[in-house]
Design a protein that fits this description.
Helix content: 10-25%
Largest sheet: 4 strands, mixed
Strand content: 25-35%
CATH superfamily: Immunoglobulins
Structural class: alpha+beta
Number of domains: 1
Shape: globular
CATH architecture: Sandwich
CATH topology: Immunoglobulin-like
Distance between the termini: 51 Å
Radius of gyration: 19 Å
Number of strands: 12
Order of helices and strands: HEEEEEEEEEEHEE
CATH class: Mainly Beta
Number of helices: 2
């Protein structure tokens, strides 16, 4: 009897460790994928004022444009967006940015069901963005935009940001 319980427990543990889940983008992700901790799952944002909306909730979605001031990102270490939409996964292929000829990194994010809060990584928890003084960079908050500017869906809000430094630049 005890052996059966132990075997059954081990089987359940093995199944849970190998479980896959769907993230907010519908992409399959490993349950043990590296994630940032201490970040809000679902940030509480007040309702936007009349004739305003959180940009990430617009039907056309948003575009994030990032410049790597430290110059450490590249083809072997691209920039990823870790956010509340992908459960703060640091290496989510659906949130991998592409580098343009001008050196600016770009990611188009489709319409979300909630405001977005995000930060940048180079694919690991150790390479998360930090402030220029190497202190922790909190998640970047959602922005509210005027609906009149984006009402027809032809224009997509763009967020232009500079990533000042990376956590792996800190002295050991």
């Amino acid at each position: 009897m005890y052996k059966a319980v132990i075997v059954m427990g081990a089987l359940l543990l093995a199944l849970s460790c190998c479980a896959k889940r769907e993230d907010a983008t519908g992409a399959r992700a490993d349950a043990d994928a590296p994630r940032l901790t201490g970040m809000p799952e679902r940030a509480e944002y007040p309702p936007p004022p009349d004739r305003m909306q959180y940009a990430s909730m617009l039907s056309q979605g948003i575009t994030i444009l990032a410049t790597d001031a430290a110059g450490l990102a590249g083809p072997s270490e691209p920039i990823y967006v870790a956010c509340n939409l992908n459960n703060w996964r640091v290496d989510d292929p659906a949130y991998r940015m592409t580098r343009g000829a001008d050196g600016v990194w770009r990611l188009d994010i489709p319409q979300a069901d909630r405001p977005i809060s995000y930060t940048f990584t180079r694919g690991s928890v150790e390479t998360v963005e930090v402030k220029a003084d190497l202190s922790k960079q909190p998640g970047r908050p959602a922005s509210i935009v005027m609906l009149v500017k984006y009402a027809d869906g032809s224009e997509k809000p763009e967020y232009r940001v500079s990533i000042e430094a990376w956590a792996d630049q800190r002295s050991p």
